[in-house]
Amino acid sequence: MPLLKSSTTKNTASSAAFRLKGGLFPLTLLEISHYDRTEFEQQLQDKAAEAPIFFKQTPVVLSFEEFDGELSALPLSELVEICKTHGLLPVALRNSDAALQDKAKQISLAIMPVGRIKPTADNTASDTAPSVTEEASAAPAAEHIGEINPNSSPSKIVTTPIRSGQQVYAPGGDLIIMASVSAGAEVLADGNIHIYGALRGRALAGVRGDTSARIFCQSLEAELVSIAGNFKVDEDLRKDHWKSAVHASLDEQTLCITPLV
Amino acid sequence: MAKIIVVTSGKGGVGKTTTSAAISSGIAMRGHKTVVIDFDIGLRNLDIIMNCERRVVYDFVNVINGEANLRQALIKDKRAENLYILPASQTRDKDALTVEGVERILNELAADGFEYIICDSPAGIEHGAFMAMYFADMAIVVANPEVSSVRDSDRILGILQSKSRRAENGERVEECLLLTRYNPERVAKGEMLGVQDVEEILATKLLGVIPESETVLKASNQGIPVIHDIESPAGQAYSDAVSRLLGEEVEHRFMSVEQKGLFKRLFRRSA
Q1: Which residues form the AAA domain (chain B) (predicted)?
Q2: Measured between CB atoms, which of B151, B152, B162 is closest to A145?
Q3: Does pTM surpass 0.90?
Q4: In terms of Cα–Cα distance, which of B43, B192, B33 is closest to B115?
């Protein structure tokens, strides 16, 4: 879950040397199914020859979810060195074997929690190691509504109310809901969110970092509204235009609520 | 083909069992062969509400496990012709319910000529409630005009449209709302959510509004479903609800503050 930065607090210390902010960055996953030094190096070399642009210090997350063999016997540092020689920069290890995690810590690899994989059409690799797939680092889990289409289209349209406890995510585009979003429900999109009804739950637009994303609703009664990680909660939202038709947008780092004419 | 109706709510104590008893009695009294099943394994109440707790020999779980057949477990109601009750087990727990077992029994009941199968769901959203709603064609969502009850009902509606057998087949479960323990005076004062408030939040067709009534407690204790009490406003409201369920158009009653005439004010009867 990315860090949400409250849009209402300001950094009063002008001389602060740094700031911790939430950021969302898609990372490539290197899914390793088995490891033999010569074979791995050869296949990596071949892939690099096919797509040289991709293999230029590209950060990758190592995953052994589909590994066939003994993880404890895996020479992790050797694998990492080979990757680096061929233009892949392993930055983290996806949560697996405890022994492997120890090795990872020794060579300064971060440990990432297990997330949900969304395989894309760009899966040119064969079934042998290594296979390269795209993964969004903030894919939400939980109960999905039947309408969710794994082959994401530009806009996702939902016509039934989003009930408490449900979560809808529109990857790669806008989300349009032709009903209300109940309290306790969550709607997310990489793009904009349009609600032709009341927003009583949570709406998070631009979840992959698109600061130009907006949220539109016919009645603002939300628990939380967020654009690219900058959010406002119920308490702040009640001050202006509560229960009116509004749209939310990001101005610099501040979330603005403007009435829809 | 039997119509399977689940009476569910999410929140506990809102009137599911009272409603199951009243509505199944009402439907049976209109001439339809009806069975009401208690899905609250371990915390059974339906048998008490319907005054057959002394006649329970075999129960739902016995039939699922093949320890008894349906004929042995079904209890014939003494008041309503055409009504049968399938009680829950008190000694087992909800894990005894399986999808295959429940499906088999529902099919057997349909084959036996039952037109309506009412499933009295337990509270919550766990296994017991899930089993009760899984095969439903229609759901009566019971809610009190109170915020937590409405929120829980919203949750249940979401689960119904995503986890039921019908949802898996791309169909919808017919959903309707029954608002219970309604007190128009308190609504007028602004102390209680009104029908319109609840309808707006839940966006579901209203089956009926059952007014708060002391006769409901009396009915439970006596083991006579409140619909048999024809003087009771709650009983009458349930009767209206049954009519609507069976396709009739009936005006909603008991939703506004009763303008009591002088006589009624002088001789106030507690309803």
Answers
A1: 2-156
A2: B162
A3: no
A4: B33
